[in-house]
Design brief:
By secondary structure, the protein is α+β, with helices and mostly antiparallel strands. It has two domains: 177 residues, no CATH class; 183 residues, no CATH class. The chain is 55% helix and 18% strand. α2 crosses α13 and α13 packs antiparallel against α14. The protein is elongated.
């Protein structure tokens, strides 16, 4: 039996001898693997970005929302009847009466199209204006770069104070946080004194977490609130081990706040950050299966093309096979050589497809502001898949070559 290294070298020489056909088949395999790895990497990028976004709430946090208004608001393909909005009075009543060791935050996003001004400088109308309370930064995982948080008297008295993100500093104050502190900015026609600068958090899902201005929630309520406005109610417990107990206490209290009778179901839902990510992962299973299906269909065409190349190669190298057998090669040696050729073509295509797929998938990462991902699991899947394709496509031609009669092969013209 010939050494494996010599068999591999012979396989490379044979591949070079059929370069054009090899490149065509290799390209089909590469595109199939690119589709497979690219789509799966893109899905991972989206999940990673959303996980990072939701994890800002922390593992010991949860929120209360009207039933049917957010993720998970469907049952059996039908949207659940939406519960009434969480009103400002309900949110504040809950905050005052919730005695569990926890931080409760009430907030409201006024607009995502605010414009901020300072002297002769102004931003584009793409600023997110959020009404918050003194607990908002802690509950939502924000840290201050410089300055201070709101104090309860500023929230209760609706003082014209603001905490701004780094994008606002970069646009209005020449990237100098110290210069922004204690200055007065205009948001629309309202002026606010800057009391704090947030640490940069970057972007998630193509939305910058730094392009934000936080003001007292009453100020946003006054300008943007209506009778149908839903207020965000988030709770962060002091100990993650108390999360279930805190959730039960919140449900009981909020039922009372909502005035629900004993025989009435909850018209609100509890959402945990890890629960939201789990829902998203479950909802992407079908997309992953579809991606795998697309890749397999493409690779099926590549396998047929590869088998055709290998059969043509067997016919063209009939005399060569006869000479090799005459020199003492066994059927097994011929079988292994042709199988290795098929696997090498698939692996070369697979490597190219994996590289293209990583870059294609990470284009999505860049578009949504996520980090560059190296999908090790999908790379391994690509390698295993191409190996299987090589074995399946090369087995029949290799078996046919190994069964050739040496005498008849030497007579072949």
């Amino acid at each position: 039996m010939a050494p494996l290294t010599e068999t591999i070298r012979q396989a490379f020489r044979s591949i070079k001898g059929n370069l054009l056909r090899t490149i065509l088949t290799l390209s089909i395999i590469a595109f199939g693997i690119m589709a497979l790895v690219g789509i799966l990497t893109a899905i991972d990028s989206i999940i990673y970005s959303l996980s990072d976004n939701f994890s800002s709430l922390g593992a010991n946090s949860f929120s209360i929302s009207p039933k049917g208004n957010e993720l998970g608001g469907r049952h059996g393909g039908r949207r659940l009847k939406a519960g009434e909005v969480v009103s400002f009075d309900q949110a504040m009543t809950f905050k005052e009466r919730y005695k569990f060791p926890a931080h409760v935050s009430v907030s409201l996003t006024g607009t995502n199209n605010a414009e901020a001004k300072y002297n002769d400088k102004k931003t584009n109308p793409t600023i997110r204006l959020v009404g918050v309370d003194a607990e908002y930064l802690f509950v939502n995982g924000y840290d201050l770069n410089i300055g201070r948080n709101f104090v309860p008297t500023e929230i209760e008295g609706n003082h014209a104070r603001a905490i701004i993100g780094m994008d606002i500093v970069n646009l209005l104050f020449d990237e100098q946080p110290d210069k922004a502190l204690d200055q007065t900015i205009f948001v629309g026609n309202q002026k606010y004194k800057v009391i704090g600068i947030l640490k940069s958090k970057g972007s998630t899902m193509n939305q910058s977490s730094d392009r934000v201005i936080m003001v007292p929630v009453a100020a946003v309520k006054e300008r943007y609130g209506t009778n149908n406005t839903n207020y965000n109610l988030s709770i962060a417990v002091n100990q993650s081990t108390d999360l279930e107990e805190a959730t039960d206490a919140a449900i009981g209290l909020f039922r009372t706040v909502r005035g629900l009778r004993l025989n009435e179901e909850n018209d609100f839902e509890i959402f945990k950050s890890d629960g939201l990510v789990s829902i998203l992962k479950e909802n992407t299973v079908q997309i992953r299966l579809a991606a795998i299906g697309i890749g397999i269909i493409t690779l099926l065409g590549a396998a047929i093309g590869l088998m055709n190349i290998m059969l043509v190669s067997v016919a063209e190298r009939t005399r060569e096979i006869g000479v090799i057998k005459a020199l003492g090669a066994k059927n097994r040696d011929i079988l292994i050589q042709f199988l290795i050729e098929a696997i090498l073509i698939c692996q070369l295509g697979g490597v190219l497809g994996i590289i293209l797929g990583i870059f294609a998938g990470n284009i999505v990462s860049m578009l949504i502001g996520s980090e560059f991902i190296i999908p090790w699991a999908w790379m391994l899947l690509g390698i295993i898949t191409t190996t299987v394709v090589g074995l399946v496509a090369g087995l029949y031609p290799a078996a046919k070559a190994s069964r050739l009669d040496p005498i008849e092969s030497l007579r072949y013209e």
